[in-house]
Amino acid sequence: MHGYTGDKQAYLTRLRRIEGQIRGLQRMVDDDAYCIDVLTQVSAATRALQAVALGLLEDHLAHCVAEAINSGGPEAEAKVKEASAAIARLVRS
After folding, report:
1. Which of 17, 24, 34, 83 is the most exposed place for a label (fewest CB within 10 A)?
2. Which of 16, 86, 17, 24 lies closest to 55, judged by CA?
3. pLDDT of residue 4
């Protein structure tokens, strides 16, 4: 079971909303919308994706990483390194 399983429907709802935002961006570009308006919507979609990513990361830390740490052993160290790498990717993006 994944850490986000309990919130799966909420994540799917948010991702569908973001998908709609992206389709809206496509329409804006197709309709030659003003550049700043398009950029504003790109920023909103980016923030929405970042919010999903942070929620997934929080769920991962609270469930998968915490469970591995409680079990101990090499899996705990691997999960912490994996989470650290995921955080690094999010910070770079």
Report:
1. 34
2. 86
3. 80
